[in-house]
Amino acid sequence: RNVLIQLTEQWKREYLTSLREQSTLKQKNNTREISIGDIVLLKKESTARCMWKLAKVVELLPGSDGKVRAAIVKVANSDKRPIYLRRVVQHLIPIEVKANNGQETQQHPVVNPSSPVVTDNELRPKRNAAIIGEIARRERDT
Predict the structure, then answer these.
(1) Where is the DUF5641 domain (predicted)?
(2) Of all helices (H) and strands (E), which one includes residue 105?
(3) Domains and CATH numbers, the chain
(4) What is the 3-state secondary structure (H, E, C) of 45-114?
(5) How far apart, in whole angstroms, are the C-alpha atoms of residue 56 and residue 46?
(6) pTM for the predicted model, two decimal places
(7) Residues 70-118: tens digit of each pLDDT
């Protein structure tokens, strides 16, 4: 429990502060535009940074000058239903996760039989022998 508290404090102190500083610096230099699909923190002055909600940018709203001034973001509600909010760009702090915008390449690397393999539908890596055994069991059962 003590380790969890220390980790949370360090995360609040270092990571969230650096994200906020990077976001402020980038907004001044206008080098990083928020794009559709980006994951952002919703800045809220009345709550602590560690309690800011995560959201996904769904739509960008440009101003009369053509620059993005606001965005519509999707936030998970307490009962897991999505809520759509309109927020100004200054209150959206992008985290280090970018949308890939469909630019995912389909590459099939050469697999070493002893190395773990991650399947698309599962997050835990599996050995090739385990995958082969699972396929054999499925074929045997059908």
Answers:
(1) 9-88
(2) none
(3) 35-97 (2.30.30)
(4) CCCCHHHCCEEEEEEEEECCCCCEEEEEEEEECCCCCEEEEEEEHHHEEECCCCCCCCCCCCCCCCCCCC
(5) 21
(6) 0.51
(7) 999 998 877 778 889 999 998 998 887 666 655 544 444 444 445 444 4
